Amino acid sequence: MICLDEMGPVSAKSYAGRALVQSRTRPAERTRQEIDYGRRAKGYIFGAFCPATGEAFTHPYPGRGGAHWVDFLEHVETWIPRTTERVYAIMDNLSSHRTTDVLLFLLAHPRWEMVFQPKYAAYLNLIEPWWKILRSLALAGQRFESWDEISEAIHHSTIYWNAHRHPFVWGKRRRHRPRRSPGIALLPRAE
Fold this sequence. Notes:
five-stranded mixed beta sheet; alpha/beta; 19% strand; Nucleotidyltransferase, domain 5
């Protein structure tokens, strides 16, 4: 199973980070960030994510049309091991995902099967929470002057993620902590 989606448009601009405020130098002040009015360039990041292994693949594109999507599917085809007999691709209902070129791609690659998620159910595609992680790795606290800088940051962040990946489990609690027992005054267990 592969989760596919596009992130964007991503603009070359300043992205807010998590800088700490020195309390001794500026007590009781809010953090400040330079206002960035310029949007110097933009594009889309297409991504493929395998929740079972946590492995990810990203590729930048200037737009999100059908031709870019088919080119991305060709890249994903080479990324997926040849030993995989069946590829179930989970994706949303964007019109560029249903073009004639995509149907021709499916005819040329019979191991692929597209699974379109219901409308207004983006949470069913596990690449959505991974986009949040990628944004924090690549974009948070950075200022980009060009689309090439963004593409390079995304590329390095994807390599970093794949070096430290872990499987995603849908519905698993954050940081894999066990749930607390309900109630505030539970009786101690008799042993």
